[in-house]
Design brief:
The complex is a heterodimer.
Chain A lengths: L15 H6 L14 E7 L5 E7 L1 H4 L4 E6 L23 E7 L2 H10 L1 E6 L6 H5 L12 E2 L22 H6 L12 E5 L2 H6 L3 E9 L12 E6 L2 E5 L8 H9 L6 E4 L18 H10 L3 E3 L3 H7 L5 E10 L5 E13 L6 H12 L5 E9 L13 H19 L3 H8 L24 H11 L2 H6 L4 E2 L2 E13 L6 E6 L5 E4 L9 H12 L7 E4 L18 H28 L6 E4 L2 E4 L7 E2 H11 L14 H10 L4 E6 L9 E13 L5 E11 L6 H20 L5 E2 L4 E2 L18 E6 L17 H18 L11 H10 L12
Parallel strand pairs in A: 1-12, 10-11, 14-15, 19-20, 26-29
Antiparallel strand pairs in A: 1-4, 2-5, 3-4, 6-15, 7-15, 8-13, 9-10, 9-12, 13-14, 16-17, 17-25, 18-19, 18-24, 21-22, 22-23, 25-26, 27-28
Chain B lengths: L5 H14 L3 E2 L30 E6 L2 E6 L6 H8 L18 E4 L2 E4 L12 E3 L12 H9 L8 H14 L5 H7 L10 H17 L1
Parallel strand pairs in B: 2-6
Antiparallel strand pairs in B: 2-3, 4-5, 4-6
Classes of the chains: A alpha+beta, B alpha+beta.
Chain lengths: 814, 208
């Protein structure tokens, strides 16, 4: 695609007018006749067992229609259900009441007596690892490695009980993470030799905090049944892939689920493939025989709305005189929360081996269950935590060795198809598809005027001191093997069906831009159909893990080429010659070199319908997913159909990178940290949609910046209750917290292992923002000031006043 | 909903927890923003002395709308569930996020934290009332042109706050406008682009 007309150009997505006029409907904006409202009864205790429920007084109330308990839900062993008889965290739903209105439902909840037996609980992973420490579950306190055979998170192996010894706790110096039995480990290279050859060896501990996802739209949902089918209006990041999940949670077949999710008010990983709580209105609606609206309050969202896993990491790293890492030894204690099993600790280990590229590395980790709300992947799950744990060591090494902070990252960056991680099942270490981090660092260094800013970093002016920092945020950025479905119809338009979610990143329109580019279709004649499985959508990737742009540009490239071939064949059939004698342009398929010949797309669409078979979608390839086949059947006979699975080869693992540059100003009299300048530069492959890409880089960076400066979870350790509820007590960035200058850019170099060249972008900026700001603070006031995030004013002030790092305890959630 | 505040109840829960006896499921949550959808009376409550008239007339987006309103009902719930104006979003239920911002007599207010009875005789404007005669409001047009928002759940609140602010300060600096809309949260968080789009909105308003 040498001369792209659409790819790489800004455009106005077709959903914007609905958004600015208030017509865009999110899950809670739908209504149905006779709609009931539901309220949840949640556990007041962090761990308990339900011994009995007396709902007689509630059921006797006029207006109360149904009560749903855990018994009404299908059983799946070991995995989280929407309601439970053994709450593992305070705020976990035990039952739900449907009534004619919310006031009645809430009153009914008050009248229900739940007999709860309190059970031992723990909110801090290190407490659970102490000898005799409490377990979060009666069956154990730590998840082991994943079950062989890839049975996935729905069938986890039972948790194990792992306790460390008093001696292991005693061996750790004050403020250093003790090291005991890990749950999992891997290594490669010669670690001992690496440390032996090092000019300096550093050993640092860092605490990365938990934060709730808190998308602006909570996980509200409305459901009703019609002709044996469940119609669910929900808030999800992914549409196609949420259907089988809902079917499993509700206990029906995927073909019985119609999911409507046209607009989603953010997810950040907390609504990846839907939300388990969707089962509540679905099953209450069935029981009450009426539509049910479940409005989730912000306070509910604080409990059931998911959060990032927090990690405490101990990092031992050796460096040669030139700054090259010689060995990296990483030990992670992950707070897994109450469900899972989570895999952030594994992603953190792999990310560390990618961005710091050590020749020898050992990763050991333990994922500890606690009685805190469930975690899920949060925008850059694992890699962001890796930035937090390891950046302090890199920054400190650069200072000690007298090397520039950008240079030490360039020296240690992977280049091209670099190897990373341990030896895999194939007997070889995996490789990246590509990496252009050095190019991004060079570009950013110039744009940010790094050298100029660096010259006055650390100098005091009055009570203010400035510092600059840089960090490389990595994340996996693309899956493969999904389907696409599109039709060119006799109305002359290209209809692109998509099963990804609408989070406002516009990746769901960008994938149609790729199809339109291949088919030489003007953008005004493209209709993107999304958000309603009743309209027929192809099997699409989860809109998580920065996958969509990579996975779905590939799939739509394949589908568009399928449609293109069919157009060429139709023309050859009617007009003579072979398919390759024809090309596309000007909404026509014409003889090469003679644009006036051939036939229009409208004529070709009509001919496809006459021809039938594969041309109009009555026959589809065998290798597409069953959902795609069902959707194709709905669109068969409407025009020329492009339908295909992405079978393009890929050699390597796709990762994207964003390099963050930050400048902070710190008032050493008040401890206040102000971010004054920020730049993010993406190495994300070919740029499809510049404006949305830059928005992703800036917005994702802000999530990381908030982790560096202000957001955290706080728990009442004695009662196991969350203190940092809602927005007020764990405040996200406001518009006043962003720097006056905030810039983004991209190197725009294509990934060689995907036909369109594009990789994903959503996640890598988070670690870039987090790491860059932490490093800038260290640059301004010294590397010894903090060893946990967020770096709040009181932490800075106390450390400066005492001349040493304060907040040393390794406690989580403080 | 004249129940005691939630603190008293969570106290009971906590005592119950400590003693390990029967605990009720009461949690600090909902009393203020619960919604009654039908015209039925509140269960178990006689109509209180001095209670206000239920059937009232509201001026919303220039139209007079008759509506049956509970005395504890918030404006956000009335707009969304009684008047079908779902463009006003509820993000936090209690004045933390600004997603529910509407204009009351041209001044931005959090509609989740205003009782509907407080706006009798006043002009309420929501995101649905901004466009007129098939033309987007200049601020709406600017948001489209600059692609100001991502998931856009916070958009109606931001736009209403900006429109209200620009009425009092039609030519603000970036910093001034940022202050004017700082009561609104976004989680996609390209605040930089949001501000650029709303500044352009100010520019369009000055031209018209």
């Amino acid at each position: 695609m040498a001369e792209n007309k659409l790819i790489g150009h800004n455009y106005t997505p077709s959903d914007l007018v609905a958004k600015v006029t208030g017509r865009a409907r999110y899950a809670e904006d739908f209504r149905a006749d006779g709609m009931l409202f539901c309220k949840l009864l949640v556990s007041p205790m962090p761990h308990a067992r339900v011994r009995g429920i007396d709902a007689s007084a509630a059921l006797a109330m006029p207006g109360v229609k149904a009560i749903l308990t855990a018994e009404d839900l299908p059983e799946f062993v070991g995995a989280e259900k929407a309601l439970t008889n053994e709450p593992f965290y305070a705020g976990e739903p035990i039952l739900a009441v449907a009534a004619v209105d919310e006031v009645t439902a809430a009153e009914a909840v008050e009248r229900i007596i739940v007999d709860l037996e309190p059970l031992p609980f723990v909110v801090d992973p290190l407490e659970s690892l102490r000898p005799g420490g409490p377990n979060a579950r009666t069956t154990g306190n730590a998840w082991g490695p994943p079950m062989p055979g890839g049975q996935g998170p729905n069938a986890p192996a039972p948790p194990k009980t792992i306790k460390w010894t008093e001696q292991q706790f005693a061996d750790a110096d004050e403020g250093r993470l003790p090291i005991g039995e890990p749950g999992e480990e891997w290594s490669y290279g010669d670690l001992d030799a690496g440390f032996k050859d090092a000019a300096i060896v550093l050993d640092e501990t860092f605490v990365v905090q938990s934060t709730g996802h808190h998308p602006m739209e909570t996980r509200s949902a409305m459901a009703y049944w019609q002709n044996g089918k469940l119609y669910l209006h929900g808030s999800t990041q992914s549409v196609a892939q949420t259907v089988p999940a809902i079917a499993r949670w509700v206990g029906i077949e995927p073909t019985q689920v119609v999911l409507i999710s046209e607009y989603t008010g953010g997810g950040f990983g907390s609504k990846g493939g839907g939300t388990v709580s969707m089962a509540i209105p679905a099953l209450l609606s069935k029981k009450a025989n009426a539509p049910v609206m479940m409005r989730i309050s912000r306070d509910d969202e604080s409990s059931i709305g998911r959060a990032r896993t927090n990690m405490t990491g101990r990092v031992k790293a050796g460096f040669a005189k030139d700054g090259r890492i010689t060995a990296l030894d990483l030990f992670i204690v992950q707070d897994n929360g109450s469900y899972g099993p989570m895999g952030d600790h594994r992603s953190a280990g792999l990310a560390a081996s990618i961005i710091y590229h050590p020749p020898a590395m050992r990763w050991r980790a333990i994922s500890v269950l606690t009685n805190t709300p469930p975690r899920s992947q949060q925008r850059s799950p694992g890699p962001m935590q890796a930035n937090g744990m390891i950046e302090p060591v890199i920054t400190k090494a650069a200072k000690q060795l007298g090397i520039d902070q950008v240079e030490i990252r360039k020296i240690n960056s992977p280049v091209g198809k670099a190897m990373y991680g341990p030896v895999g099942p194939t007997g070889q270490r995996p490789r990246l598809t590509s990496a252009f981090i050095v190019e991004a660092l060079d570009k950013g260094k110039e744009t940010f005027r790094w050298d100029e800013k660096k010259a006055y970093s650390g100098q005091r002016r009055g009570s203010k001191v400035r510092g600059v920092g840089v960090a490389v945020g990595p994340h996996g950025a693309g899956s493969i093997g999904f389907d696409s479905l599109m039709t060119i119809r006799p109305d002359g338009k290209l209809y692109v069906q998509t099963g990804v979610g609408n989070l406002g990143t516009h990746s769901l329109m960008d994938l149609a831009r790729v199809a339109a580019e291949v088919l030489a279709m003007p953008w005004e004649k493209v209709e993107v159909v999304w958000g309603d499985t009743g309209k027929g959508v192809p099997w699409s990737c989860l809109s998580v893990g920065s996958q969509t742009t990579h996975a779905m540009t590939r799939a739509n490239f394949a589908g568009a080429n399928d449609a293109k071939r069919k157009l060429q064949e139709i023309a050859a059939k009617d007009l003579g010659g072979g398919p390759d004698d024809y090309e596309l342009g000007n909404e026509r398929v014409y003889r090469r070199g003679s644009p006036g010949s051939g036939m229009s797309y409208i004529q070709a669409a009509k001919r496809a319908i006459e021809l039938g078979g594969k041309y109009d979608g009555h026959e589809v390839p065998d290798d597409v997913n069953a959902m795609t086949k069902r959707a194709a059947a709905m669109h068969a006979g409407l025009g020329v159909m492009g339908v295909a699975k992405d079978n393009y080869p890929r050699n390597g693992t796709t990762y994207s990178f964003v390099v963050g540059f930050a400048e902070v100003e710190i008032d050493v009299e008040t401890g206040k940290v102000t971010l004054v300048d920020y730049l993010g530069v993406g190495d994300v492959g070919t740029v499809i949609n510049p404006r949305s890409l830059l928005a992703q880089i800036k917005g994702g960076s802000c999530l990381g910046i908030a982790h560096a400066l202000q957001q955290k979870w706080v728990f009442d350790q004695k009662y196991g209750l969350m203190v940092s509820r809602r927005f007020h007590y764990t405040k996200p960035l406001t518009i006043l917290d962003i720097p006056v200058t905030m810039q983004a850019d991209a190197v725009n170099l294509p990934d060689p292992e995907t036909p369109v060249g594009a990789r994903g972008v959503g996640e890598p900026p988070v670690g870039a923002g987090y790491g860059a700001v932490l490093n800038a603070i260290a640059d301004a006031v010294g590397v010894e000031v903090f060893r946990r995030a967020p770096v709040t004013s009181d932490l800075v002030l106390m450390s400066l006043e005492n001349g040493r790092r304060m907040h040393e305890p390794l406690q989580a959630h403080v | 909903m004249d129940q005691p505040p939630s603190d008293a109840r969570s106290g009971i829960s906590r005592r119950a927890f400590i003693k390990g006896v029967i605990a009720s499921g009461a949690v600090a949550s909902s009393a203020a923003y619960l919604f009654r959808g039908t015209g039925e009376t509140i269960f178990g409550q006689a109509s209180a002395p001095g209670s206000v008239e239920r059937l009232i007339t509201l001026n919303v987006n220039g139209q007079m709308r008759r509506v049956d309103v509970m005395r504890q009902e918030t404006l956000a719930m009335t707009l969304r569930y009684k008047l079908g104006l779902t463009g006003t979003k509820i993000g936090c239920d209690r004045a933390e996020c600004g997603a529910c911002t509407v204009l009351v007599d041209d001044v931005p207010h959090y509609s989740c934290s205003m009782l509907t009875h407080m706006v009798r005789g006043r002009r309420v404007q929501t995101i649905e009332g901004l466009a007129s005669g098939g033309q987007l409001h200049p601020v709406q047009q600017a948001v489209v042109d600059e692609q100001g928002f991502q998931c856009a759940f916070c958009l109606p609140g931001f736009v209403m706050a900006a429109v209200g602010f620009l009425k009092t300060n039609p030519n603000p600096t970036r910093q001034e406008l940022a202050h004017g809309i700082s009561g609104n949260l976004c989680r996609c968080q390209d605040y930089d682009k949001i501000l650029t789009s709303l500044m352009r909105g100010g520019e369009y308003m000055r031209r018209t």
